[in-house]
Amino acid sequence: MEKVLVTGITGYIGQHCAAELLRGGYDVVGTVRSRSKADATRAALSRVAPVSNLRFAEADLLSDSGWAEGMEGCSYVLHVASPFLLAEPRHERELIGPAVEGTQRVVAAAQRAGVKRLVLTSSTFAIIAGKPTGTYGPKDWSDTEADIGAYAKSKTLAERAAWEVAANGRMELTVINPGAVFGPSLGAAMDGQSVAMMTKMIAGKVPLIPDMALGMVDVRDVAKLHVTAMTATGAAGARFIACTAQPVEMATLAEVLRGAGYAKAPSRKAPTFLLKFMSRFDREAKGMMPFIGKKATLDNSATLAVLKWQPTPMAESFREMAAALSH
User: What pTM was estimated for this model as a whole?
Assistant: First the structure.
């Protein structure tokens, strides 16, 4: 089978992507900043997939070295993005600079290596941020002139940079735009906003539920969509929204958790004025503010039709993720 390079293979989404590829018979090259991380990733993947066709290449998104060697002979590249984070960094450039520069570097290296198609992990936050409540689709872009937070801005600018670099070559580019990702980990450190939120809810550390609703998706669905998008007819040059069409309220997540026996999950909503006050000194609350009270509906019809997506019910994802975090 053909060879695929996966960036971010040590991460939550990256490991699921690699497992899906290995089960499909592909040769997989995973990039790691340090080979010391390779053994743990191989061990995690070996529990769910054959790993005889898995190898690792040392490469850093902020350095040119290692990319040509890692991509040699690869037909496809999955550039899996950073975790979903709402907490504001002290300076937005801490997120934006590496996200844009790293994406430009990977796309350009893939073009030089003669890769047929690169699948980029972006985010629905590159589509809906800075927009009022409404319906949005693959042709929409977040408003980077608005106060949308560093994460949404970094995802938007990084994806735009990918399209700009890809326009100067023959390589095909396809983008997956997941919403908030839930579901069990294969062994990677489950960092990111969805994990932090659920961990706190289970432990009773979230006394009140923020008035926030997001498109959501199971991590296993995200992996399957990446692999399908590599070869799907009609996927080249397209963006695919990977999440529930209707936004899921945080209150729904809490309700599912309480129904599954996690009695400490909250049941009362947080007043918006309280979150506004907290945002003055809490970086996570500050990161939530652009999305409080807004409910964006997302048009995922192309994902369902072109990539033949059959979404996993989010209640199932919530319960399995909570069980994994509780052990």
Answer: 0.93
